[in-house]
Amino acid sequence: MAQERILVVDDEKEIAELIRDYLENEGFEVKLSFDGEQAMESFRGFDPQLVILDIMMPKIDGMEVCRMIRAESAVPILMLSAKKGDIDKILGLGLGADDYITKPFVPGELIARVKANLRRYIHLSGNRDRSTPLKFGSLEINLKSYNVFLNGRGIDLSGKEFEVLRLLATHPGQVFSREQIFNQIWGYEEYGDLNTVTVYVRKIREKIEQEPAKPRFIKTVWGVGYKFDGGQL
Q1: H-assigned helices in the chain
Q2: What span, in angstroms and rounded, lies between the C-alpha atoms of 230 and 216?
Q3: Dihedral class, residue 149 (left if φ above 0, else alpha if ψ from -120 to 50, else beta)
Q4: Are 86 and 58 in contact (CB under 8 A)?
Q5: In the structure, what pLDDT confidence band is assigned to residue 86 with cuts at 50, 70 and 90?
Q6: Mind listing the pLDDT tens digit for each residue in 147-190?
Q7: Domains and CATH numbers, the chain
Q8: CA 96 centroid distance within chain
């Protein structure tokens, strides 16, 4: 397997080096950064396929770095924090992080999270031809660049929001249960529940639907799940 590149950002040098050791033992190529400014320089030069990002850092904090990375790329971002309240804030702000883990962490759990997010990202950006955007009336979805446009205006989706939309939009008319969506996108049931899907569909609707309560694109099939209707009323 080719070495996937992982950027680890944490101002606690010992923790960053410990994470690097765990990841290198699994065959990953790892680069360390110790503050937010250095993180952005490394991100642009190293071109990682996944970022592990601590929240509390000097110069630029992890939340702002997450926002900046997400504006440029859809690579998975795994947030680290010693405070559960910080994680709640990340989720509430919708900064675009794909996953999170609290300190102190179990090495096996960290590695499992990293591998699951990498598998999903590599699969979605893999060998299939994604150069032709999907177009549904006023909605355009570019599978290659992870860009979404509505009436020509760019829509800011997090990595997982895009993946949920991509799954539904590439199978128009097909009904997916919440369980199917969760297993396809998150892929490890022990770290979440099916209400996660409901939350993400609501967030996507708020961004792409003119009337989220009366969606044109992502429709609810009551008692079953969701389907993408291609914008048909």
Answers
A1: 13-25, 36-46, 62-72, 84-93, 107-124, 159-169, 178-185, 195-208
A2: 8
A3: beta
A4: no
A5: low
A6: 899 999 999 888 889 989 988 988 888 788 888 788 778 765 44
A7: 5-124 (3.40.50.2300), 134-228 (1.10.10.10)
A8: 6
